[in-house]
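We modelled the chain as a single entity of 98 amino acids. Its sequence is:
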Amino acid sequence: MAAYYINSYDIIDPEAFSAYGPRVLPLLLKYGAEVLASDVQAIPVEGIARTMNAIIRFPSEEAALQCYNDPEYEPIKLIRLKSTANCTMILVKEFQRF
């Protein structure tokens, strides 16, 4: 069953953050992920929109967690952590139809 990372955060250092995408994309592909949405101009319908919002689909929850915990992601994650604030990253499972 597919799983989705839903990420929202504020970019506080755009120059530093610009290194994140090119470095994280190959790792996402390694785990079969697909970026479904990535937007720096999201429209807040309720609550507060962050400056970056993304939805990433993985083939399974296991693949998503393996990607996040991959030692290769540690230095990449540091780029994100140092260049963003107010980060929320959640992992949700695909909706099961009855």
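As a brief sanity check on the tokenised model: The first strand starts at residue 3 and ends at 11. The radius of gyration is 14 Å.
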